[in-house]
Amino acid sequence: MSKRFAIIIVVLLGIYAVVNFFQSDDEVTSSSDPMNASMNTDDMMKDMQDDMSDAKSDMMMDDMDDIADMSDDQMSKEQETRKLLAELKTIPVSEFAVNKMKYERLLEMHPGNERFMSKVDFYSQKLADQQAGY
User: Fold this and answer.
1) How far apart are CA 98 and CA 113, in angstroms?
2) What are the backbone angles phi and psi of residue 113, rounded to the nearest 5°?
3) 43-63 as b/e, with b when 16 or more CB fall inside 10 Å?
4) Is residue 48 predicted with pLDDT exceeding 90?
5) How far is CA 56 from the centre of its chain?
6) pLDDT of residue 117
């Protein structure tokens, strides 16, 4: 968003500079009708403000769409987390592979979560012990 905003500002400043240049030129060449020259400049300024409003509105709509997409992703992530945690409550601790798989999925969705890392390590060790015959 900030990159687009900066580009719009630069373009608008350029337009403003051009408008001011022609406004001063109009005042010199049409000194007999200064009202007409200022009206043209005023119209240009109004158009420029309308363009700025449209650009800002478009950017806000894009941002709102991004936020909506993010909240949908966040919502589904939370729902899946709750579902997995509920399932884990029903799975016996002795089912090492299933528990490990579900905790790995939770860890994938929540990287850095100490509890999920600990559970993955625990069930990984239990599976290794089981395969070694302990």
Assistant:
1) 19
2) -70, 115
3) ebeeeeeeeeeebeeeeeeee
4) no
5) 16
6) 97
Q: What's the pTM?
A: 0.48
Spatial separation of the C-alpha atoms in residues 78 and 11, rounded to whole Å: 42
Alpha-carbon distances, residue 19 vs 5, 7, 13, 32, 35 (angstroms): 21, 18, 10, 20, 16
Find the helix packing angle between 2-29 and 34-90, rounded to 10°: 170
Q: Which two tokens mark 33? A: 């009708």
Report d(CA 81, CA 93) in Å as an integer.
19
Q: Which residues contact 44 (CB under 8 A, 6 or more apart)?
A: 19
Residues 80-97: tens digit of each pLDDT: 999 999 999 999 999 999
Question: What is d(CA 53, CA 69) in angstroms, rounded to the nearest whole number?
Answer: 24
